[in-house]
Amino acid sequence: MPPPPNGVAVHTPHTRDIEPHDGMRGLPLVHRYTIEVEGLDPAHDGLRIVHLTDLHVGLLTPNARILRGVAVALREQPDLVVMTGDFVCYSPRYVSVLQDVVSGIPGPVACVLGNHDYWTDGERVAKALEHDGYAVLRNQSTRVTLRGAPLELVGIDDAVTGHADARAAFKGIAHTTKVGSPTRIVLTHVPGMADRAVTHGAGLVLAGHTHGGQVHIPRVTDRLAAVLGRPYLKGFFHLEDSTLFVNCGVGASAIPVRAGAPAEVAVITLRAREATEGRVRYRAHDARHRALRLTPGRP
């Protein structure tokens, strides 16, 4: 993962680089991030979010891997759980499986759909999630009260299948993310939609879709992705006054092997930008608890 931008502290466990596809080995890693958010409501300083994405319930993703992600969401007792698309893969028969494996996450839970959901059956996927009590935002926004203060959730629908409409998603939302306005989190499956989101004053943008490149070769994969028009592959990116985080996701849709982009469940702690005085740390802990400190940079 590239060094994080200003305002991000990252704590990641040691892991082997390649995850075999056997359902027990290759379970998603739990990555913990602390992110400074512009204009964060003081009541939300320390707010915890679990971010799941790209579960890909289907032939190539063992249910044990998905259940591990759900177990993290239960164990961490977060204030909010968000899921950013590609819940199922290839066949509508997996929609009922999805409903079972992701059930029971205590609210609030907010979701957006991805391209594989629409290619499978977007309406059925949305209904399955709503049956479990989760909000599905399709170019919509909602406001929830967390720790006694309002938080705005904006959901941009899938761009690959032509359903995205950032203008509609931000309808009625004030442009500013300065202190005094509600904390704002934007959900989108496709990271590239962050460019449109920031024109509306995005705040924190959470995305998936890329699988981190699935097989990620340092420098090579990132350069190739940029040439193909996908500059946001994994990790953190500064976009004006906003921060984009691209999660590597849990499942697989094409090949059952990951290299350099292990399956991931993100546990995100929000901090007010003023509270952390601009300090940035990147720490990678191995079994001997050795800490590495890198110079902050822009991916």
Structure description:
The protein is α/β, with parallel strands linked by helices and 299 residues long. The protein has a single domain (8-276), classed as 4-Layer Sandwich (Purple Acid Phosphatase, chain A, domain 2). Helix content is 18%, strand content 28%. It has helices at residues 63-75, 94-101, 115-131, 166-169, 194-197, 220-227; strands at residues 8-13, 18-19, 29-37, 48-52, 80-84, 109-112, 135-136, 140-146, 149-156, 183-188, 204-207, 235-239, 242-246, 258-259, 264-272, 281-285. The strands form 3 sheets. Strands 7-6-5-4-15-3-1-16 form an 8-stranded mixed β-sheet. Strands 8-9-10-11-13-12 form a 6-stranded mixed β-sheet. Strands 2-14 form a two-stranded antiparallel ribbon. Helix 2 (94-101) crosses helix 3 (115-131). The longest helix is centred in the middle third of the chain and has 17 residues, at 115-131. It is globular.
Instruction: Give the biggest beta sheet.
Output: 8 strands, mixed
- How much strand? 25-35%
The DSSP helix count reads 6
Instruction: Give a count of the beta strands, DSSP E runs of length 2 or more.
Output: 16
Tell me the CATH topology: Purple Acid Phosphatase, chain A, domain 2
Average residue pLDDT: 81
Instruction: State the oligomer.
Output: single chain
Query: Structural class per helix/strand content?
Result: alpha/beta
Order of adjacent strands in the largest pleated sheet: 7-6-5-4-15-3-1-16
Number of domains: 1
Topology pattern, helix = H, strand = E? EEEEHEHEHEEEHEHEHEEEEE
Low-confidence stretches: 11-24, 275-299
